[in-house]
Amino acid sequence: MTTKSEAVAEFVDWLAAFLPQDYYENYRRYRWDIPLRRDYQRAAFEGGWLQPTWPREHGGRSLGLRDAMEIRIEGALRSAPKLPSIQGPGVAAPGIRQFGTPAQIERFLVPLLRGDEWWALGMSEPEAGSDFASLRTRAERDGDVFRVNGHKIWTTQAHESRWCTLYARTDPDAPKHRGISCLILDLHSPGVRIEPIRMASISDETFCEVFLDDVEIPLENLLGPVNGGWNVALSSLHHERQMIWIMNWVVIKRGLDAVRTAGAEDSDLYPELGSLLADAEALRATGYRALGNELAGRNSPEADIMKLLGSVTLQRVWELAAAAQGPGSAGDPDLLFERQDALAATIYGGTSEVQRNIIAERLLGLPKG
Ligand SMILES: Cc1cc2nc3c(=O)[nH]c(=O)nc-3n(C[C@H](O)[C@H](O)[C@H](O)COP(=O)(O)OP(=O)(O)OC[C@H]3O[C@@H](n4cnc5c(N)ncnc54)[C@H](O)[C@@H]3O)c2cc1C
Questions:
Q1: Would you say residue 89 lies in a domain?
Q2: I need a labelling partner for 339 at 20 to 30 A (CA). Which of 128, 262, 312, 326 fits?
Q3: Would the CB of 357 count as within 6 Å of ligand 1?
């Protein structure tokens, strides 16, 4: 059994050996380098650093939660390459591991984790985003297939993906959230039409619309129980949340450095800067408290607070960085990217308004307004 410090130190050395020598000098270029990011994913899988708590054959080293969190933090602090298609390893893979049949795990997991096959998440629809349970895409049993008709939107990188965890209504008579199933859709199937959405921001994570017209999905591609898709989705989002706060915290720290570099002399910025420093620290402390609860097997109510605090703080910090730079900030492409990227953070994985509702009702026990 490797101790915490040995595992973390080994990861740090491994990362340094993996990165090109001029990585930090030319980070602005490397952050968009998809071949490098693909190589990183494959190497992290083979080295056991991709999912540190999982066994070796699934890209991990069977480490504990504490080590896994420190490894993620060290990687983020050192600007480790971003996985080129995060929703596969970050969201779909935990769902397949938890709910998949042995045959599904055997077929899908390793190509996904190595990055050989990309996965999309087919949850949102034009009339069902925050209210995911209202989705209308239908999957009807027809012999040994599900026949699927419907329309998904905001499906990140669907046009580059091979597979999709597709949520569809399999029992229209059941209460909304009890009639949904999760199906593994081959995006190359007849009847699937994928249309990328033109992006207004700098991003390689293109949104798509996915139209499904009489698409056949074999019964063996059901993930989890029939009408059990709600739990598959909740579990997937839980894994997404575990990652989000660390990513947010590191980018907030980078934003704070940018404010201090550009606006060190401007005392008008100090009150907001002080408030942001405190919020960044609160986010980190809450992350460790969540870890403590998980290690003790206690119910951990922190995820919703961290999602809200992390995403709102992220937006505030990059707006302050722009104010610190002054009028010249509009011509800085890196700053523009950070500001645009921060805008999305209060939407994906649960919007801020919805997070506030959850915190008010479930954590604080306030009555519905
Ligand atoms: C970067 C990014 C990547 C994404 N990737 C994917 C993906 O790969 N697959 C996928 O399926 N989806 C994806 N999404 C979509 C995302 O899950 C939805 O945008 C999100 O669930 C919100 O849904 P919506 O956009 O339909 O907004 P709506 O739910 O229509 O909300 C519109 C506004 O109303 C507010 N609102 C809604 N309900 C309430 C309420 N009860 N109380 C108070 N206010 C409310 C919201 O906060 C928001 O301000 C992605 C989104 C982003 C930004």
A1: no
A2: 128
A3: yes
Domain annotation covers residue 348: yes
Q: What Cα–Cα distance (Å) separates residue 249 from each residue in 39, 179, 266, 289, 311?
A: 25, 37, 24, 15, 9
Convert 279-288 to b/e letters by CB count within 10 Å (16 or more is b): bbeebbebbe
> How many independent structural domains does the chain possess?
3
* Ligand 1 site-directed mutation target among 87, 125, 130, most atoms within 8 Å of CB: 130
Domain span including residue 294? 231-364
Is 70 known to be catalytic? no
Cβ pair 158, 210 in contact under 8 A: yes
The residue whose C-alpha atom lies closest to atom 26 belonging to ligand 1 is 129
Same domain assignment for residues 303 and 319: yes
Say if residue 44 is in the same domain as residue 132: no
274 and 211, same domain (yes or no): no
Whether the CB of 155 sits within 6 Å of ligand 1: yes
User: How far apart, in Å, are the Cα atoms of 143 and each of 22, 146, 184, 215, 226?
Assistant: 57, 8, 17, 14, 15
* 130 and 214 part of one domain: yes
Q: Are residues 342 and 288 in the same domain?
A: yes
Among 167, 197, 226, the domain-final residue is: 226
pLDDT tens for the chain, 369 residues: list them: 445 589 999 999 999 999 999 999 999 999 999 999 999 999 999 999 999 999 999 999 999 999 999 999 999 999 999 999 999 999 999 999 999 999 999 999 999 999 999 999 999 999 999 999 999 999 999 999 999 999 999 999 999 999 999 999 999 999 999 999 999 999 999 999 999 999 988 888 999 999 999 999 999 999 999 999 999 999 887 777 766 889 999 999 999 999 998 877 888 999 999 999 999 999 999 999 999 998 998 888 898 999 999 999 999 999 999 999 998 888 898 999 999 999 999 999 889 999 999 999 989 999 986
Query: Which atom, in ligand 1's list, is nearest to the CA of 87?
Result: 8
Residue nearest to atom 51 of ligand 1 (CA): 348
pTM of the model: 0.94
Choose, from 70, 209, 240, 302, the residue flagged as catalytic.
240
- Whether ligand 1 lies within 6 angstroms of the CB of 154 is answered as yes
